Amino acid sequence: xxxxxxxxxxxxxxxxxxxxxxxxxxxxxxxxxxxxxxxxxxxxxxxxxxxxxxxxxxxxxxxxxxxxxxxxxxxxxxxxxxxxxxxxxxxxxxxxxxxxxxxxxxxxxxxxxxxxxxxxxxxxxxxxxxxxxxxxxxxxxxxxxxxxxxxxxxxxxxxxxxxxxxxxxxxxxxxxxxxxxxxxxxxxxxxxxxxxxxxxxxxxxxxxxxxxxxxxxxxxxxxxxxxxxxxxxxxxxxxxxxxxxxxxxxxxxxxxxxxxxxxxxxxxxxxxxxxxxxxxxxxxxxxxxxxxxxxxxxxxxxxxxxxxxxxxxxxxxxxxxxxxxxxxxxxxxxxxxxxxxxxxxxxxxx
Length: 350
Hints:
- The chain is mostly helical.
- The protein has a single domain, classed as ABC transporter involved in vitamin B12 uptake, BtuC (Orthogonal Bundle), CATH 1.10.3470.
- It is built from 13 helices and two strands.
- It has a two-stranded antiparallel ribbon.
């Protein structure tokens, strides 16, 4: 058996790959559910009901999808230019810290101005923290996978230091959390008696903007060209370092906005448990979406529904909610295998 490069990849194959990946994940997940001693049909019905079975469940799934859209976009944009940003988790916390710094009393503006200011501050913080990995990659050839990944832990330790020290809210009964965002900086809810907030609109708008930039602008053309072939892009006159810097700024800014949306829309204050791994899950979101900004929306909502549904399933059926992590992991592996088969075909024999 050997792999041979396909001259032309069928469009239908690219479109079907995410669907097949999801089906494979659920098939393999059924074996783990059986191993746990429960019926896969009963478990999956409970999962679907928990994610989509009521208006409350739907709003919870959409709420969970908001940070995943931002981090999925961050990964998708960076990966398009083969800049492997694994640091969206840390950049998310940088955005949350910036929102906390500005939004807890530094300035007090009307909501229509205050909220954009907080998102701009969070985006700038995400951009700035990514400048170091970009410099190390472009000037010293240091692998950005290592630098962006390790920065996550440094940033989390820094957040912990702040919450246990100068930023600790004296009104929090000893809990390590920062002061609350002022009322003018809080995102309004868009569905009564739910947690779904205006961040979903901002996330959808950013997805459309990033799609338009990548599809219709010179910047987008350069980013895509660098991702396809860096050597050919250099011959064409495209600056690789400039393109890497550009995607890093976009990527870090989007991840920072995820932190702002969580602080201003959901939690109301900064904590060390602000993110259960949204930055890492964003990679799976981007891969399932085939790095397409609009596809990120669908992918994020799907994975968010899996996590919300798994929580409900664990309460209804005697199965740990960690089954959601298994489904997401298998989906990601299936996408990777499918992407390989889209580029290569299997040839049997000599």
